[in-house]
């Protein structure tokens, strides 16, 4: 079960006790930043980055010290942001005139954006370093992953102190690459051909499973036997492409769809987020609609319907999990 408590993180992670009070000679550290992310999202960022980027042993050796330096400097900027938000929170409590309040809000936005600029400059500097050590695509992906967690923590802090300014921190997800790959496939193949080679169904399931795998990995969602279940689904999908004369295509597609629907439902349960029961119900219904005794090529509308409902359910899950990261304030 995935249990998040952003209040707990804000108290123990973003507080000066967690980051280290500067007047107590306890410095901000990369390890503290890593620990905060792990406490909030049940994710080991360093291990996740290495695994997601597929770094070789040599690349890991080169990547690690640069990663630690970057995380330390990023932690210092996060502490600067925390101090700025705390200062503004105290100003809000003052009995100022409306004109003074408007001026303070404007100054706060300017200061907030200045830290955004500083973070972008930091990312630019370290991208230059990383691209000499690992392929530039992997360097870009690392920053996307790290930023998705950092922005959520900053967003949670804004919601806690000043919800009206939450738009300063848009929602980001660490697996946007896989999400977009599935969404783009759906857009391009809105009426893809369900032909005898069954590449449409195979490719759809492959991109959908990559999306689901990245979601559970990046969000720290523990789904029982996920890898085996994904493997079973892809095995059924691969079987569709092997023998075009087989009479079992519809039966195997139905099983793959039903297993996929069950997996999505379990992700929803283990993520512990709100999702309309109708979305899961429609996905299950679409999966069960495939008739095993009928040719798959005669059931293309049912195949389209399944992927439509899968996209809606997965994208709703992605959004709600990200929103959940800053909307839950009860300490569990």
What does it look like?
There is one protein chain. The chain is mainly α and 332 residues long. The chain has helices at 6-12, 16-19, 30-41, 45-53, 57-92, 98-130, 136-161, 176-188, 199-218, 226-240, 249-271, 277-288, 300-327. The chain has 2 domains: 6-168, no CATH class; 176-327, no CATH class. It is built from 13 helices and no strands. The protein is elongated and about 75 Å long. 36% of the residues are buried. The model is unreliable at 1-26 and 328-332 (pLDDT under 50).
Model regions low in confidence, pLDDT < 50 over at least 5 residues: 1-26, 328-332
Structural class: mainly alpha
- Total of DSSP H or I helical runs spanning 4+ residues: 13
Distance between the termini: 12 Å
Backbone CA Rg: 23 Å
Tally of distinct domains: 2
Summarize the biggest pleated sheet: none
Level of helix content? over 70%
Order of helices and strands: HHHHHHHHHHHHH
Determine the strand fraction and express it as a percent band: under 5%
Strand element count:
0
Shape: elongated
Output mean pLDDT. Answer: 84
């Amino acid at each position: 079960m995935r249990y998040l408590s952003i209040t707990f993180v804000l108290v123990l992670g973003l507080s000066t006790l967690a980051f280290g009070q500067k007047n107590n000679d306890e410095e901000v550290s990369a390890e503290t930043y890593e620990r905060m992310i792990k406490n909030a999202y049940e994710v080991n960022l360093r291990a996740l980055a290495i695994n997601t980027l597929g770094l070789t042993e040599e690349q890991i050796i080169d990547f690690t010290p640069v990663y630690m330096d970057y995380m330390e400097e990023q932690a210092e900027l996060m502490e600067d942001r925390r101090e700025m938000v705390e200062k503004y929170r105290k100003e809000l409590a003052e009995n100022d005139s409306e004109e003074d309040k408007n001026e303070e809000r404007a100054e706060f936005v300017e200061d907030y954006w200045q830290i955004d600029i500083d973070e972008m400059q930091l990312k630019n500097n370290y991208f230059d370093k990383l691209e000499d050590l690992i392929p530039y695509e992997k360097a870009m992906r690392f920053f996307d992953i790290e930023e998705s967690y950092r922005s959520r923590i900053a967003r949670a802090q804004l919601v806690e102190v000043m919800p009206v300014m939450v738009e300063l921190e848009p929602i980001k997800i660490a697996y946007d690459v896989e999400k977009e790959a599935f969404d783009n496939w759906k857009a391009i193949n809105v009426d893809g051909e369900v032909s005898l080679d069954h590449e449409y169904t195979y490719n759809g399931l492959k991109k959908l499973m990559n999306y689901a795998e990245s979601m559970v990995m990046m969000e720290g969602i523990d789904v029982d036997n996920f890898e085996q279940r994904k493997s079973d689904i892809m095995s059924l999908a691969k079987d569709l492409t092997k023998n075009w004369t087989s009479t079992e295509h519809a039966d195997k597609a139905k099983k793959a769809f039903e297993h996929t629907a069950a997996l999505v439902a379990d992700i929803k349960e283990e993520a512990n987020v709100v999702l309309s029961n109708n979305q899961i119900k429609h996905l299950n219904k679409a999966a069960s609609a495939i008739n095993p005794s009928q040719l798959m090529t005669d059931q293309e509308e049912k195949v389209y319907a399944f992927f439509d409902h899968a996209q809606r359910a997965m994208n709703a899950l992605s959004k709600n999990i990200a929103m959940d990261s800053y909307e839950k304030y009860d300490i569990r």
